[in-house]
């Protein structure tokens, strides 16, 4: 999705949550510095383009739906640990690092692409975790893209993974571990689930 097409939705999200664009932009610049030129977009594209892709959200239902995993596996943040616990190594993890643990470092070392997202609220996490990730890295932002910092569209980890798969050209995208109607979450998370549904419908995924 071109940033010009994404920007109206991004602006609406900023207004909805009261987030500051300037903070997102500063975080993106920091991530660019921390990545220090690392950009494994080509590897991510080779895993996704013309392939069946399964995007795994981190809803409680994920473990019950793992029999539907097929093709390239994209994990949304802490869903990666659920997959690892069931013997599945994700091909890529889309994460703003709020669910990061040492499992992410191990996956990075094994060759999983870490698609790390910068936003105004995760600067300390970026500073801590990015230098610890030794393997393939793709940096993303929800603000205007920078050299080596990409914006595929999407807002939360799960819907960003779907947007990336769609943008890069997956032949088919399967979505599991999503529960956008979950009421057992705090108001901010409920807002994120609302926006995930709205954004996914923009590109043809009605969950």
From TrEMBL:
Domain 6-hydroxymethylpterin diphosphokinase MptE-like: 42-184
InterPro entries per the UniProt record, alphabetical: HMPDK_MptE (IPR027510), MptE-like (IPR002826), TPK_catalytic_sf (IPR036759)
Required cofactor(s): Mg(2+)
Reaction catalysis annotation: 6-hydroxymethyl-7,8-dihydropterin + ATP = (7,8-dihydropterin-6-yl)methyl diphosphate + AMP + H(+)
Keyword RNA-binding: no
Annotated function: Catalyzes the transfer of diphosphate from ATP to 6-hydroxymethyl-7,8-dihydropterin (6-HMD), leading to 6-hydroxymethyl-7,8-dihydropterin diphosphate (6-HMDP).
Protein family: Belongs to the archaeal 6-HMPDK family.
Name of the protein described by the UniProt record: 6-hydroxymethyl-7,8-dihydropterin pyrophosphokinase
Gene: mptE
């Amino acid at each position: 999705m071109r940033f010009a097409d994404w920007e109206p939705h991004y602006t609406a999200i900023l207004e909805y949550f009261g987030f500051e664009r300037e903070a997102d932009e500063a975080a993106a610049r920091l991530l660019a510095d921390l990545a220090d030129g690392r950009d494994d977009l080509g590897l991510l594209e080779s895993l996704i383009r013309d392939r069946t892709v399964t995007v795994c959200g981190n809803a409680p239902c994920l473990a019950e739906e793992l029999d539907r995993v097929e093709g390239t596996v994209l994990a949304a943040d802490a869903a990666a640990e659920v997959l690892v616990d069931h013997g599945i190594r994700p091909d890529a993890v889309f994460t703003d690092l709020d669910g990061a643990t040492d499992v992410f470092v191990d996956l990075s070392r094994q060759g999983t692409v870490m698609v790390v997202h910068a936003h105004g609220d995760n600067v300390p996490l970026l500073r801590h975790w990015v230098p610890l990730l030794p393997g393939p890295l793709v940096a993303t932002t929800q603000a205007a893209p920078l050299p080596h910092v990409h914006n595929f569209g999407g807002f939360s980890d799960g819907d960003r993974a779907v947007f990336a798969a769609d943008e890069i050209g997956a032949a088919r995208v399967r979505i599991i571990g999503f529960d956008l109607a979950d009421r057992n979450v705090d108001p901010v998370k409920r807002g994120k689930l609302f926006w995930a549904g709205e954004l996914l419908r923009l590109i043809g995924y009605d969950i």
